[in-house]
Amino acid sequence: MRRTERFPVEGSNSLWQVYRTVSFWKVLKNALVIHIARYTPFLGLKNWMYRTFLGMKVGEKTAFGMMAMIDVMFPERIRIGRDCIIGYNTTLLAHEYLIDEYRLGDVVIGDQVMIGANTTVLPGVVIGDRAVIGAGSVVNRDVPPGAFVAGNPIRVIRRGEEKRGKGGGEKERNA
């Protein structure tokens, strides 16, 4: 279950009322920073921009692939551990605007997590340390540490307690 805060709205849909929930100037600044960061090939510069201008917590040696899309309205609600890979064109969302309400939720990504290309991470989820998310997945719930998940919505392919051998992902056997 995702951990989100719900805020009902009346009248028009919640996205039409967006500037009642977040400052236009904040969105404009964030959009400019994110747009520049999406195209820069300098990983350290991206992390610095996300920390400095967006208020994100990004661990050392975390690498954002080209075109990764960070939540433009509430990026400060995203925390990413150290030594992670956020794949090409992945989207990290901390908000969702619906017809009658909008929802906010923190996204917490542990250490040494690998998120495949074209993945969407929804608000209010926690991804445990050393988890692997398959390309093209929709992360709609928490991912346990060490697990390999994939799909839309995600399903567990391998649990964290199963160890990978040196032969490319096979289970280690106890003799």
Automatic annotation (TrEMBL):
GO terms for molecular function: transferase activity. It comes from the Bacteria. The keyword Cell cycle does not apply. Gene3D superfamilies: Hexapeptide repeat proteins. Coiled coil: none annotated. Keywords: Repeat, Transferase. InterPro entries: Hexapep, Hexapep_transf_CS, Trans_hexapeptide_repeat, Trimer_LpxA-like_sf. The keyword Signal does not apply. This is Acetyltransferase (Isoleucine patch superfamily).
